[in-house]
Amino acid sequence: xxxxxxxxxxxxxxxxxxxxxxxxxxxxxxxxxxxxxxxxxxxxxxxxxxxxxxxxxxxxxxxxxxxxxxxxxxxxxxxxxxxxxxxxxxxxxxxxxxxxxxxxxxxxxxxxxxxxxxxxxxxxxxxxxxxxxxxxxxxxxxxxxxxxxxxxxxxxxxxxxxxxxxxxxxxxxxxxxxxxxxxxxxxxxxxxxxxxxxxxxxxxxxxxxxxxxxxxxxxxxxxxxxxxxxxxxxxxxxxxxxxxxxxxxxxxxxxxxxxxxxxxxxxxxxxxxxxxxxxxxxxxxxxxxxxxxxxxxxxxxxxxxxxxxxxxxxxxxxxxxxxxxxxxxxxxxxxxxxxxxxxxxxxxxxxxxxxxxxxxxxxxxxxxxxxxxxxxxxxxxxxxxxxxxxxxxxxxxxxxxxxxxxxxxxxxxxxxxxxxxxxxxxxxxxxxxxxxxxx
Amino acid sequence: xxxxxxxxxxxxxxxxxxxxxxxxxxxxxxxxxxxxxxxxxxxxxxxxxxxxxxxxxxxxxxxxxxxxxxxxxxxxxxxxxxxxxxxxxxxxxxxxxxxxxxxxxxxxxxxxxxxxxxxxxxxxxxxxxxxxxxxxxxxxxxxxxxxxxxxxxxxxxxxxxxxxxxxxxxxxxxxxxxxxxxxxxxxxxxxxxxxxxxxxxxxxxxxxxxxxxxxxxxxxxxxxxxxxxxxxxxxxxxxxxxxxxxxxxxxxxxxxxxxxxxxxxxxxxxxxxxxxxxxxxxxxxxxxxxxxxxxxxxxxxxxxxxxxxxxxxxxxxxxxxxxxxxxxxxxxxxxxxxxxxxxxxxxxxxxxxxxxxx
Lengths: 439, 358
Known about the structure:
Radius of gyration of chain A: 22 Å
Low-confidence stretches of chain A: 1-23
Keywords (chain A): Signal
Protein name (chain A): ABC transporter substrate-binding protein
Largest interface: A-B, 52 and 46 residues
Strand content of chain A: 5-15%
Mean pLDDT of chain A: 89
Family (chain A): Belongs to the leucine-binding protein family.
Radius of gyration of chain B: 21 Å
Shape of chain B: globular
Helix content of chain A: 40-55%
Pfam families (chain A): Peripla_BP_6
Strand order of the largest sheet of chain A: 6-5-7-8-9-12-13
Strand order of the largest sheet of chain B: 1-4
Oligomer: heterodimer
Number of helices of chain A: 15
Signal peptide (chain A): 1-25
């Protein structure tokens, strides 16, 4: 093996053929930054499958959106921000339309892309994650975090806890622990919870867990020692299941342990087995397959072997959340096409669609997701979040199912709005942004 | 053939001590620089800038810095990510406290701040060596990231601990923030890397560099011939951290534009930069460039070939990419344990004799 043959071999390996796709009619490019690999893959796979399934269904059965086919592109980030930036730059000019909307599916990547995408005039749909203050559309015209952001989630959970304690007055002197992923994502709710704590008089314990979250012994020992009345969790990926298992091992009462919507999937509770019964999580979508659209996905795709994932995974809470995300994406583009009277939209027009997006209960019915799949969504210039309502779901290990135990709970806007304004204004000031006038 | 030195006589000491004593080398480097400075900017787009060239340049800067410490002075460090964080947070604080300050100056100041911190964490190296020192620098890595996570002042008390680089100019041209043109950011990083690579090259060829190498090769002997370990080791830590701090500034300011300490400056970055210099070549400035290119560009090349070229699914390509990258690292290290830079010099030796090897 001389140097020359090695060099030849290397050259041959590198010089693989490049194939170009045929030119087609106008397609709507919808990328998704996925993570089917890496430590967060268990959380990333169901979401990506739901996206893939919904767009396949739209393309094959309904001819796309308003007659334009969807060019669905996956780019793998492994939940890593640097790779997320590479993916974004890679997909943003794909196809004739260019990326119409970016779903980063990671709070860290969303933070990274907000300035860039706003400059490139591509809307970001960070559904229930990302930067909370992006709900202020006057400072963040291109960012949307419908149907609910983290601060809404935090207030919904606190309202639920107060309700369980028999009212706000009984919260005085209670201890609430926040177990959070030590990143921008996990820190999001801290300020909100602190503000409510001042108001209600409960003590807040902060317990950070470092990426990826395998190691939580110390955290739960502390919980065992201090015995907080409630534990609230902001976790993701493997961190969730470790936390539920640890909670079970110190015999912490599961019905006093509540996760945010990213800590409420089947993957998070199954490893703990029977002990996980009673664990609760916030959610803005109903679990299960009892919805016409999901039945349609099963018969049209999975029965014909076209499904993206395993049949069992359909109807899981993260799958349904991914589906909600895909539906919101498609509806935003549909609104944009109707507004502008042409399918030849680009990111800038797509943004208008998202800003005027309305999915009321009637529209949910039409989409095959009626009967309480998700709260109504209504976006406006000064509100890129919608209602912010969420419900609490509870896990039952016997039946292996999540069930909703509350109706949609409205967030505490009076607490959130001032914090949100302050944060958005600070961002605008730091980055020389003049806020739009939202009439 | 092309690579013959026949007839190139050195008639003075400066000529004999030139960085590129062979005319072909010199011509080639000048050509590369001309292409990089003149031919690339008109054609550069966002993708090439943000996904390929700027990451490559900022990692090169970090690799040069780490190479000074590990490759030239023999002090193993696993704190690169933490020191890059110091550079990045210094940049952020300077940018938000003094808006309007020239960004080039900010990068250099961030380098000085990091040099101070680096020298401080270099103090244990006077007493401990080898793996024990690696553990001490590992502590620096975790302590610094923890500090930036914990103390609100560093991230201006934002609710999430994220820092975002505001728009800043250098000589009147916007280089950071979303509105900066890709060419501006690229040229800014390129200028920095070229100037400081030259500085590093000359430092390592001079008195101080020889002291570092003496310490690396045998510290007791070095001490006996009059090298002061205190001065040599601490200067290596300071200079190395200066470079790494500037790398952190470019990484955060020009490339990412936003960062959170745990994710952007984690231990994985320390390892990545360490792998760069091991694969590129310890104790070689060229090696820093080659190693950074290998670790930054190869994954992207592999991905592009597999996804766009062969039409594989993104996730399959990712699995293959991890596999192939591992295989290639092993392959290159088996072919040449001393790294890519040594491989190149071996090839150069062979080329000199080609086509009549003896």
